[in-house]
Amino acid sequence: MSISRLYLLKGQSGFLSGEERMAVPHVLIFPLPLQGPVNCMLKLAELFCLHQDIHVTFLNSEHIQQRLLNCTDVQIRFKKYPNFKIMTIPDGLPEDNPRTGDQVRNLVKGVEDVSSPLFREMVTSGSLSPNSEKPVTCLLVDGIFPFAVDIAEEIGIPLLYFDTISPCALWTYLCIPKLIEAGEIPFKGNDLDALVNNVPGMEGVIRRRDLPSFCRVPDLDNPTLQFFIKEGKHIFQAQGLIFNTFEGLEGPILSQFRAVCPNIYSVGPLHIHLKKSLSSKCSVPKTSLSNSIWKEDMSCMHWLDEHPKKSVLFVSIGSLATISKAQFLEIWYGLVNSKTRFLWVQRPGSVIGLEENNDVPVELSKSTKERGCIVSWAPQEEVLAHPSVGGFLTHSGWNSTLESIVEGVPMICWPYFVDQQVNSRYVGEVWKLGLDMKDICDRAIVEKMVREMMEVRKIEFLERVREMRNLAIESVNEGGSSYKDLDRLVEDIRLMRI
Questions:
Q1: Residue 232 confidence class, pLDDT cut points 50, 70, 90
Q2: Would the pTM count as exceeding 0.90?
Q3: How far is CA 121 from the centre of its chain?
């Protein structure tokens, strides 16, 4: 751990020096430039902004920033915070790159090759350097960026890593070397239901098919596997780890982290934490709190108004996932055959091989007009909060999972990649908040699971999710675990004692 002249560790006197007292707390937040991490970190940035003595600089990619300006009122919303500013840098990818799930490794490489040198210059000798008018006193960076360790040490300030995926998923990432050493990766044989034995705290829970998707590779030289192994080597070099979760949900896994990194800040669910904080300060904005990089179609809210309570299944595979035309049609047939009302987000570009004027079977179009609503993007938090929504067929991204929990909506999980396999297993097997449909895309199974959630086990699932929702709300109320952790984080940044 580096010792900075700008923040207090355990000095002999226990008092801040004159120079330390004069340093203005200034956090630089640098997310992975994708919808999920940016959304999550912007919410944390706004929570910091409510403490007027903390200055916040949000380092966004030019691409994401332009999308935010096109699709939200984020500029208006943050204008009321004089202690907040956004700076932009390129992400290293051409503008026409789709930045879908299959491009994440290229995006991270682009950030490392193009963005990180600009980031380093900015904080070492540029406008945010120690010699500037308002020097940065703390780096808060996405956990996927190893270069932040050296930069923080070079300028002598603390580094906090914020992994915006779930702790339970990150823990499996960090245990990959142990799984390789034990001979559990690569898999021997084709039994994906075999239990995994060398992830502490997950014994008897995680099967091979529940590990992050990149663990299914046939050899250890796979670049994706090596990429994530690399993440585990730097994450604990930070002075603290921030998670968007709460004790009532992931307490046992957080205990595993604390055994190797005592300074853990569990401050979620951030979206409801922010709403609660704004409400308590009587500053709830008239504008939306959306950080979406897709234009939200609000017409779906009027459609939801027309349907009975808990009668609609919300369907969305998120901002990164792509599926084949065959998978797309199997899901559609399953939804239609279930006879359940559904609101389906069909994101542009999310279906591979589907022409713009596609030849959708007549029976699907007809049934959808009777019971369904299709939009290109939806205001997800508002949709999940709507009284008519009774279930969520989701890709199991972490933001989506938390948003569903907070609104008491059970889930059918159809994960796409990386952390989502772990999340879906926990939703189905550990937290009992829904059904895990991973590795299956068959209309009969989709129909069966939709009926099971929306009819057969409806009351059971709603009661269980209501219990977890209450724990989530309690965590961000005054005195709750996430409330106290955020207070501790703010105070540590303010006093620069991380």
A1: confident
A2: yes
A3: 28
CA triplet 61, 265, 177: central angle to 5 degrees? 80
The pLDDT of residue 196 is above 50: yes
* Separation between Cα atoms, residue 194 and residue 179, nearest integer Å: 14
Q: Would you state the structure tokens that stand for residue 377, as one six-digit string?
A: 């993007």
Which two three-digit tokens encode residue 266? 């569990």
How many CB atoms neighbour CB 65 within 10 A? 21
pLDDT at residue 7, rounded to an integer: 37
Beta bridge partners, 479, equal none
Please give the angle made by the CA atoms of 31, 33 and 37, to the nearest 5 degrees: 55
The residues near 174 (Cβ < 8 Å, ≥ 6 apart) are: 232, 235
DSSP annotation of 426: I
Amino acid at position 302, single letter: H
Q: Per-residue confidence at 418, pLDDT binned at 50, 70, 90?
A: confident
Measured CA to CA, the distance from residue 245 to residue 452 in angstroms comes to 28
Distance CA 462, CA 49 (A): 35
Q: What is the 3-state secondary structure (H, E, C) of the chain?
A: CCCCCCCCCCCCCCCCCHHHHHCCCEEEEECCCCHHHHHHHHHHHHHHHCCCCCEEEEEEEHHHHHHHHHHCCHHHHHHCCCCEEEEEECCCCCCCCCCCHHHHHHHHHHHHHHHHHHHHHHHHCCCCCCCCCCCCCEEEEECCCCHHHHHHHHHCCCEEEEECCCHHHHHHHHCHHHHHHCCCCCCCCCCCCCECCCCCCCCCCCEHHHCCHHHHCCCCCCHHHHHHHHHHHHHHHCCEEEECCCHHHHHHHHHHHHHHCCCEEECCCHHHHHHHHHHHCCCCCCCCCCCCCCCCCCHHHHHHHCCCCCCEEEEECCCCCCEEHHHHHHHHHHHHHCCCEEEEECCCCCEECCCCCCCCCHHHHHHHHHHEEEECCCCHHHHHHCCCEEEEEECCCHHHHHHHHHCCCCEEECCCCCCHHHHHHHHHHHCCCEEECCCCCCHHHHHHHHHHHHHHCHHHHHHHHHHHHHHHHHHHCCCCHHHHHHHHHHHHHHHCCC
